[in-house]
Amino acid sequence: MAQTISHEILQAALDGLRIQEERIQGQIAEVESMLGGTSKAASRATSGTSTGKRGKRSPAARKRMAEAQRLRWAKLKGTSDQPAATEAPEPAKTKRRMSKEGRAAIVAALKKRWALKKAAAKQATAKKSPRKTGGKKAAAKKSTAKTPKKVAAAPASSVAAGV
């Protein structure tokens, strides 16, 4: 008994093998890209398949797409007026410049402000410095409190000596 294989079965088998071949070629391309090199077979395999990146669009095409999107939004929002792109665009506003006199006034005000701040800082440090010496006096008082005991003992010995 000889088996006869139909043409449809053979075609399906061939399609399956080609799908496997594309998958394998893709895996080969991945490994080669990890290694840093590419082969002719890998470049052929990737050229036929899409990589998911979009092609660059011309400025005119992007403008048409933007216009179409604006129209879709206008329709969705229920506004019947045309988008602003069809109207004449407003001229760009000129950048405001500061005059030399204005800048000089700002600099003078800043210098005055910093001078006052520095003067206030000097006064604050001048007031704090006597307090620091006050702390030293308190320490001196403590040390003098210990000395009278020694001094009291000294006159007693001098009295005993007959002085």
List the defining traits of the structure above.
163 residues; mainly alpha; 4 helices; elongated
Describe the overall structure.
- By secondary structure, the chain is mainly alpha-helical.
- Among the domains are: 8-48; 104-163.
- It has 4 helices and no strands.
- The protein has helices at 7-35, 40-48, 59-77, 100-161.
- α1 crosses α2.
- It is elongated.
- The chain starts with 6 loop residues before the first helix and ends with a helix.
Rounded Rg: 47 Å
**Which shape, going by the Cα principal axes?**
elongated
So how many helices?
A: 4
What is the residue-mean pLDDT, rounded to a whole number? 77
Classify the secondary structure makeup into a structural class: mainly alpha
Number of strands: 0
Question: What distance lies between the first and last C-alpha atoms, to the nearest angstrom?
Answer: 150 Å
Report the order of strands and helices: HHHH
Strand content: under 5%
Uncertain stretches: none
Give the proportion of residues in helices.
over 70%
- Major beta-sheet overview: none
